[in-house]
Amino acid sequence: MSELFENLLSDVKVNPHLCNELLAIAGGADLPGFSIKRDSDQKVSNWLDILSIMQIKNIYQTAHGHPSVAFFCPTKGFRNQFAEIPKLLEDRGITVLYLYGEKHNDEFEKHENSFCVGGDVILKNLGFIDVFCVASTMDCLPHKSKKILFNHISFADFTPNKKQGYCPSSDNIPEIYENYGYLTAFFPLFDYYFVPSKVYSKQFQEEKNFFQQCSTVNAAKPDWLRNFFLERLSAEAVNLSPEIVEIGYPKFDYVKSREHERACDKEKIIVYAPTHTAHGHIEDWRPYISVIEHGFDIVSSLAENFPEFKIVFKPHIEEDKKLVDRVMSAANTHQNIYLSSVGSKYADVYNSASIMVSDFSSTAYTFAISTKRPVLFFSHNEKVLQNKLANNEYCINRERVGVVTSNLSHLVRDTSKLLGDQDHYERIICSFVDENIFNFGESSNRCVDKICSIVGV
Question: Are the C-beta atoms of 149 and 192 separated by less than 8 Å?
Answer without folding.
Answer: yes
